[in-house]
Amino acid sequence: MKLKIPKEVKEQIKESIIQSTSHGFPRIVASQNIPLRIFWILFTIASTGFCAYLIADNIISFYKYEVSTKVRQKFSLKATFPSVTICNLNFFTTENSAQFINDVLSKKNNETDIKDDTEFIIQKSLTLDSNEKKKLGDSLNKLIIDTSIELTILDISDDLFSYFFHPWYGNCYTFNPYRYENGTIREAKTILKTGYMNSLYFSLNTSISEEIPFPVRVQGAIVFIHEYGSSPFSVDSLTVSPGFETNIALHRTLTTLTPKPYSDCDKDTDDKDKYPSDLFKSIHDLRFNYSQKACFDLCFHREMIKKCSCFFYLFTPFTEGKACLKQEEIDCVTDLYFDLMEKNYIDTLCKPLCPLECYSLKYSKSVTFSKLYSSSQDSTVINIYFEDFSYTEIEENQVMTEVGLVSNIGGIAGLFLGVSFLSFVEIAAVCIEVSYYYLKKKFRLKRQKSDNIQQEFTSKL
């Protein structure tokens, strides 16, 4: 059955199309000349098709989540100095450690305990309480002889340095630490001068006790230069040789990524309650800011504890849980490590639980050496400084935002069809008018029927 549209509705729709703010359809309806009407139909169809293609292309581009990277060189005349963590290259340096080593080796069970003596001794030391562990390595005043910054001599004290235990190197000390020993956040050190003459200067004593019962393979110091607030584990270390002055010139690079889905990073990683992962929350419970690298390390550490009931210091910077002491435990941990590496455990096991931070600050280093004119082969000098006040800023931005997408669609529709947002309002207005016409007609018919029934009832009376 063919739908019959009333003449009034047709006239109303025709008038609305002719008065529309768009260009193609009013011309088609208003044209009296047939060839001219065909001309407008063809060009309207072509414009509509090309418009649809460009709009679809913009929508596809938007959902590719592409970014543009902006690299700028900036200047800041007041720079926050990084935290610097210093360790003796040797874990055991004192007479107490010599006695500890002798006691451990005398009680070692060569049948079941870890075969390598050095590994067994370090693992055994990790079972001690914190005070006993401190006695095995350098004290603050023994390791650091002198220090200064910007030509100002500093007092070597616990107010200036924070103790940090490293499972590979033992006692370490952090200059410009994020927190005091009691856990409160301290004010960051800022500098107003750059260059070698205004460097952070350290004079170190890297000697070890002559009573250490096994040959010392290397001697020197380890330096971690990391962002204020971050863990020393978040960066790679530098080895400093005794008998040399080591000059380390720094340049800062600040990187800001656009959060998912535009990159792999997650926003608000500074908020402990943002993500439900226990690993994420555990990293926040430490004395440092969150980092994905530390979260990955803790992920493997807990997998070791879960599968082998102990940890091995060479595979983790963390010391929670029981230290492995038996050779079969070391074999378990080693097999687990290679098995998980083969299965790409970081992507499959750890990455879903360890969000990536969007902001990072890295220090590139230019290192030079000069030999010290000194009779002591145990001392070394370190100078750490900014080359200048410039820094590199790398920032990602969305190629197309939601506002940009809407603007592009509006521009394309306006260019090819001459339509705007109000054009769609006009369509809605036509629909409302037509609906109102039919509702009014239906109401009139219903009322007319009611009147007829009432007249029939009256006539019967």
Automatic annotation (TrEMBL):
Superkingdom classification of source: Eukaryota
InterPro entries from the UniProt entry: ENaC
Topological relation to the membrane, as annotated: Multi-pass membrane protein
Localization terms from the record: Membrane
A molecular function (GO) term: ligand-gated sodium channel activity
Family classification: Belongs to the amiloride-sensitive sodium channel (TC 1.A.6) family.
Name this polypeptide is given: Uncharacterized protein
Lineage, broadest ranks: Eukaryota, Metazoa, Spiralia, Gnathifera, Rotifera
